[in-house]
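The freezer alarm interrupted the setup, so I double-checked each line after restarting. Inputs confirmed:
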Amino acid sequence: MAYFLQQLINGVTLGAIYGLIAIGYTMVYGIIGMINFAHGEIYMIGAFISLIAFLVLGAMGVTYVPLALLLVLILAMGFTALWGWAVERLAYRPLRGSFRLAPLITAIGMSILLGNLVQILQGARVKTLPPTVPGGLILMEAEGFAVRLSFLQIFIVALTIALMIGFTWLIKNTSLGRAQRACEQDMTMAALIGVNVDRTISATFVIGAALAAVAGLMVTLYYGVIDFYIGFLAGIKAFTAAVLGGIGSLPGAMLGGLLIGLIEAFWSGYFTTEYKDVAAFSILVLVLIFRPTGLLGRPEVEKV
Amino acid sequence: MSAPLLAVDHLTMRFGGLIAIGDLSFEAQPREITAIIGPNGAGKTTVFNCLTGFYRPSSGMLSLTHKNGQRFLLERLDGHLITRTARVARTFQNIRLFSNMTVLENLMVAQHAALMKASLFTLGGLFGLPGYRKAERNALELARHWLDKVGLTAKADEAANALPYGDQRRLEIVRAMCTGPELLCLDEPAAGLNPKESADLNQLLLSIKREEEIGILLIEHDMSVVMGISDHVVVLDYGRKIAEGPPSHVRADKAVIRAYLGEAEDAEEDAC
Amino acid sequence: MNRLPFLLKDAGLAALIAFGLALPLAGFRLPDGASGTDLGFRLDWVAAATAIVFAGRLVMGLSRPFFMAASEGMAPKFAAVTRRLGWSGYLLAGVALVLPMLPFADRNLIDKATLILIYVMLGWGLNIVVGLAGLLDLGYVAFYAVGAYSYALLSLNFGLSFWICLPLAGLFAALFGILLGFPVLRLRGDYLAIVTLGFGEIIRVILLNWQNFTGGPNGISSIQRPSFFGLPFTAEPAEGITAFHDFFSLDYSSFHRVVFLYYLILLLALATNLFTIRIRKLPLGRAWEALREDEIACKALGINPTMVKLSAFALGAMFAGFAGSFFATRQGFISPDSFTFIESALILAIAVLGGKGSQMGVAFAAILLIGIPEWFRELAQYRMLAFGCAMVMIMVWRPEGLMSKRDPTVRLKGNKP
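Predicted 3D structure, all chains:
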């Protein structure tokens, strides 16, 4: 029971991180129907920027943790968003209206490009960050096993919930959100009634990148170890989460992320860690076969 | 009298709470053109989608009887088998050609099932066995026959999307004919055609009926086509049949005029 | 009209963005320190990046009118050139045939040519799936791996020769294709892409972790090398076995094997090509293309989409299986490292950059993407960077691929071609 609870806590934390990345996939897919393959790399860049920001702030003598966290959050979101914007502007916008495979190919190219760029700039070795948010609560102790809930885990889940609330509000109530939903329905029509489609799509990439940056920050704090290669697997898993929840659906992305996180935590907790990546993929395959629209996605009627 | 080519029996199609077709029954005879008319949204295309396996009817029976007496229950067949074995071919409201392939290739794809068998599922074809070569020659002959018929022979090697609109419509019809159907379902074949093209279409459909001795099921808004060539008209409104009979009879029907022609009396006069 | 102020402003903006992009990632170094990662500064790099972007943008802006005129003239010319490239296929095949006999052909060149040919073959195999049938497969490398491991395990455990293992490897790969394809081929395009990607990763993880069977991360070594119809390419063959050089009374040279391998893959690749050219003109191949164009219309013509897709998937997988077993016999050693997602991406890039369904384009793309980086091995660390860059740039420049002209599969007799 105690062990179960611990895995649950770990799974939810992991799920929050996947969910934040998944939102970027689901938003972009919803609006322009492409798999932004480079999104995992954006998340990796977010993690690197977070790490660098921590080190810079440390060098500048900012030692008060909440302040440092806030500043890093802002810096990482800002700079990563710029990367997200630039990727869209350079690699995807010129291909709008081209055949379906084209943007996916550039996205794969972009993913390779960004991964290797970071490798060249920062080296292939892992980077470490000493624990920044230490401490935690011990929820219960049973059978010589203590269930820990660290402050960091509370921070991660709380921040995710706060971002989700803010983000849902943004989509529901702002003109940007309305423009996004309009583009999702019909881009040509949205353009005809005066929505600036290019700007809306850019904004989508910016928001997605900013959320991915938060996920990057969380991973840097949570594991304390990052390298240039973390984007690939996290990206695929987050995409899996988006599909699992129903691509195009924001609550779906969060739910999917949560499920993937839980599956991974329980799988590695109860079975072997070696096949935990396979678990996520197998579930993806099963979901797509039996419920292709995902858990919260709307069914698509084949139009003849 | 022998069994009708197509017997639609109490067909109902529901989408959630919406009843697109409610308890529809009608028959279509071989060597006859049966038109289904009705205002937009009356459920005409839904009938086609049920017939050709794109939708599974909520209830009802769709039975098809070939000239040789063989009988098929369409609602039980998989989509592609409806064309392959029951020999029902169809066209689409918004033309669906293989647009980057040539006109001739479109017609060859339509003969896929026969050619596939002749090529021993590719193996024989790969090594150029004579059986396949003969089948391919026959397929080309059939394609040429239909191309001649609609005057597209000279354009046989052009990409389908390079054809003018009217030609694309005609190509889609002869492509359906290349599957060798017993029942041909045409979804608004005259839409977007000018009067001259529309008249040509009438001739084409009449000659198909006469020479191929098959039944044609037609959805059409163009009354000159409907009234000019159909032997039997079924009128739908809100998914239900409101009238049925020969064109002259339907034209005079009060319910039809109210539901369909009623809003513009002169539309009917245009049609005559 | 003086456009300079506008251009300066534009370049300034671009430079500002470049500064923002470069500052966090290039401006700091993260060297290993005594207690974890240290921080170093490298702000000169940021300045350099900013300056380069400013200058580049300005030059681009200034030369734009000239550039536009030039490219306008270029486009039809390029199209005309590609249209007349029909004969170049034979030329390329001819060069490939005589390559080992040319005076400048050394071991290094033949090795590289062999590598390129592997990718040409894989590109052609994937082209069946992606180019003809229009199915996006991001896990193609899985079938390549199945082929390689099939050969390695069959020859190691049962002592079967290459020529028996080759068809078996293809068969196994095709079976895997059917096994995977059956449940997933009903999915829409992008979903199919992601499921195939997942499948590719699953295969790799299994290869990595199923220690007893696959050797895990250490892979399988000392795989049997191919023989020339039973004549091995060894300096000192085992007792009672005639080596290739003895049989033909030649001096032993390790070059013989290299050349033999080269011709082997050339043969396999050309077979793949011939198969594709031939099947395009058969009903199955035509159905693939029709399916790519419009699945619903296919159904209405009595074509079973699932079977047609499955056949494309299985045949594409089969060729990957052949290529995989060649790879295993050439390397003599395989490990899961050779079958990562990057390989799938590379093959897909070759197939798509070449032009949808264009055989020649695929060959050129393979030479471009595999060959050129091979000659710049010294710059190995920049190789993948350049590769990613090339993928993005070629796609933005010519989204329809390098060569995208489609030849009709059949013409009406009597009509002018």
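Quick read of the result. Strands of chain C lie at 28-29, 32-33, 36-37, 40-41, 227-228, 231-232.
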